[in-house]
Structures are given as C-alpha cells and as structure tokens.
Design goal:
two-stranded antiparallel ribbon; about 375 residues; 8-stranded parallel β-sheet; alpha/beta; globular; 10 strands; TIM Barrel
Length: about 375
C-alpha cells in the first residue's frame, strides 16, 4: 500500500465501492434538518414521566409502546386540523423549566444519534406559559436544554449544532411579540422565526407587522405555507411577507403541468420559487398523514427534485410520524431510486438554506458532509 494513502476507519466500504444504501448506512451519513417541531418529537417514555411529575392525567395510554402507537395512529387522520390535536398532550407536559430543558436535551441527543449534524428545531413559546413561566424564561430554559444536549452528543462522539426557531401561532395575535423575542435571543441560539397552525382562514398576511419587524432587524424567518391550503398561501408568504423559506410548500406542484409526453410546464409562481432558489422544507411522511399527498410514492418530492427546485428532507414531527431523518431518506430512496449522491445533494441543499452564518454553513458542508458522503460513495 502507498505510504501516502491515509485509510479512514470506514475504508472497507470506500475502497470496495459504494456502501449499501440501507438504514444502517443512512444513519451513519451526515444529515441536516430544517423543519422539526420540538413538541412533536418527544420520546413516549418522557411524555409519561413528565405527565406523572406535573400531574397531567389526560394521556390516552399508560405505557410507552402503546402511547407511541396512539400518537402515530391518531396523526394518521388525513387532516391537518385533526393531526394538530395530538399536540395537546405533548404541550401539556412542557410547561415547566425542567420539562422544557429535558425535552430539548433529549431532542438534540436523539437527532445526533441519527447522524444529524445540524438541525433547526421550532416551537411556540406562547404555548408553554400555563405554569407561570414568562416567554423569556421559556426560551432560556429551552436553549439551556439544547446546550446540554449538544454537550452530551459531543461527548458521545456525535457532534451536532442546534438552531432554535421561535414559532408564533397563526390563529393568535402574538406574532409581533414572538418576532421581538426571536431577535432578542438571536445571539444566544435562536436562529429565526416562524408561524404555524391551521392555514385555512389564517393567511400569513395577517402577521405582516411581525415579518416587517424581522426584515427591519436583518433576521431570518420561514412560514408554514402550501401544506393544507395550496398556492394562495405560498403566494402570500412570498409576495407579501417576504419569507426566506417555505415550511412544507408541497402544493407548489399545483402550479406545474405535466403534459401527455411527460414534459413539465411551470406556472409563474413555480418558476419564481425555482428561479429565486426559495427552499422547500418538505416532510414526506407528515404530508401523507395530513392528507397533503396520498403516499410517499406519490409525493411530488421527486418531480420537484428533478426540476431542480431547492428541495430539503425533513421530519416535521418525529413522534407523530414515528420517523427520523434516516427513515425519511430511506423512504424517499426506496420510492424514487435515489443514490448517495442524491442524498448528499439534499443535505447540502438544507445547509445552504439554513439560518447559520455563511462561514459556519460552508464549514459543515466542506468539513463534515462532503467527507462523510465520500466514504459512502466509495
């Protein structure tokens, strides 16, 4: 062997050709996640323990296995509105400093164990005030939990960077207040701002003052749009609100015509989204559960990817969808025949679209993602 050749620990796969694209190897691949809800990713065992500690007696099951199954089955409603009702139980046990810190810490640990090297995790501080915490205290305890989780993951040899997104509920009237909170804590771990909740009847343009505040302060934000309500919500999020990214955005496919010969024609909105490289935070399993698409195999992810939209792979709610980044990537690879180079592209798309400072994005792409996929590509 040439003395100048440095053999990596995973050199057997690298020297013998591409590694098999299976769940085990996908879990080893470095991944980036932009759309993950903190209150949608709890461990079932943690929900049970926190419920016992805080005196919440409304859980529909008394053991972790049954509770996890209940969340998954209840979320399989085909309706965004019914899907959102499952969050009443997780939010109920996230009302104390200890509960918020634990959930955030475990979130970072779980994502890192799945090979996620960067994640933006979102939640709505206004939903965690029932036990007397202030908005600032909610943010501070959650950020402390993320820091603890990052430290534990680093000690385990799986370093991860967590950026926090503060969400305002679109049916409420606190979006400007939450936007101000996001700017106040942006140097302490808050990466940006978001609005979420029922789309129908609650257009993003209702929150223009919040988005104008974010833009005035050179701060990042994303908007849940194009999941349940279609093209009008996407248009408003972009044209009126100036969003950096589209949370889901899956219904942009409604502005794409597929001709009999297979050729695709893009409408004006779809062309604009593609031309401007506006990132799509696509969540395949969740989109099936809420009825946005019929199945992963019928998800427009592949159409959008082949048309070179800025597609990213996301979990949305790991508890409700019984999923992980590795599972989402494996489902897409199985459905559409993707290889390692495709998964690498989706990962780089996510990092390019992240709210990290540019130099940090570049470092993760060049020093972590590309070397990690070189090993798997062989």
């Amino acid at each position: 062997m040439d003395d100048d050749l440095t053999v990596a620990p995973d050199s057997a796969a690298r020297l013998s050709g591409p590694a098999p694209l299976d769940m085990q190897n996908i879990a080893r691949a470095p991944k980036a996640l932009l759309h993950d809800h903190l209150d949608g990713g709890l461990r079932p065992s943690t929900v049970l323990e926190l419920a016992s500690e805080c005196g919440y007696d409304g859980l529909p099951a008394s053991d972790a296995e049954s509770l996890g199954r209940w969340f998954r089955d209840a979320a399989d409603s085909g309706s965004l509105e019914l899907y959102l009702e499952t969050f009443a139980h997780t939010v109920a046990v996230m009302q104390t400093a200890e509960g918020l810190q634990r959930v955030a810490r475990e979130c970072a640990e779980d994502l890192a164990a799945d090979g996620v090297v960067y994640a933006e995790v979102r939640y709505a501080p206004e939903q965690h005030l029932e036990k007397g915490l202030t908005l600032d205290e909610v943010v501070e305890h959650t950020l402390e939990g993320f820091r603890q989780g990052e430290s534990a993951a680093r000690a385990a040899g799986r370093p991860i960077v967590i950026g926090c997104l503060l969400t305002a509920m679109r049916h409420a009237a606190r979006s400007r207040e939450i936007a101000e909170l996001a700017v106040r804590y942006r140097d302490q771990g808050v990466a940006g701002f978001d609005i979420a909740g029922k789309e129908a009847g609650f257009p993003p343009s209702r929150h223009l003052d919040a988005f104008e505040y974010m833009r005035a302060n050179n701060a990042h934000f994303t908007i849940h749009a194009g999941e349940a309500f279609g093209l009008p919500s996407i248009h408003e999020a972009i044209a009126f609100c100036g969003t950096d990214r589209l949370g889901h955005g899956v219904r942009i496919v409604d502005d794409i015509t597929i001709n009999a010969d297979g050729a695709r024609e893009l409408g004006q909105l779809a062309n604009y989204v593609r031309d401007k490289r506006i990132p799509l935070e696509l969540c395949p399993s969740s989109n099936v559960q809420t009825g946005a698409v019929a199945s992963v195999e019928e998800h427009p992810f592949d159409i959008l990817a082949r048309l070179r939209f800025r597609v990213t792979v996301n979990t949305d709610n790991r508890l409700m969808s019984d999923t992980s980044m590795s599972k989402e990537m494996y489902r897409l690879a199985t459905a559409f025949g993707y290889g390692w180079s495709d998964l690498e592209r989706f990962t780089i798309n996510a990092l390019k679209s992240s709210f990290l400072p540019f130099d940090q994005r570049l470092a993760l792409i060049d020093d972590v993602v590309k070397p990690g996929y070189r090993v798997l590509l062989g």
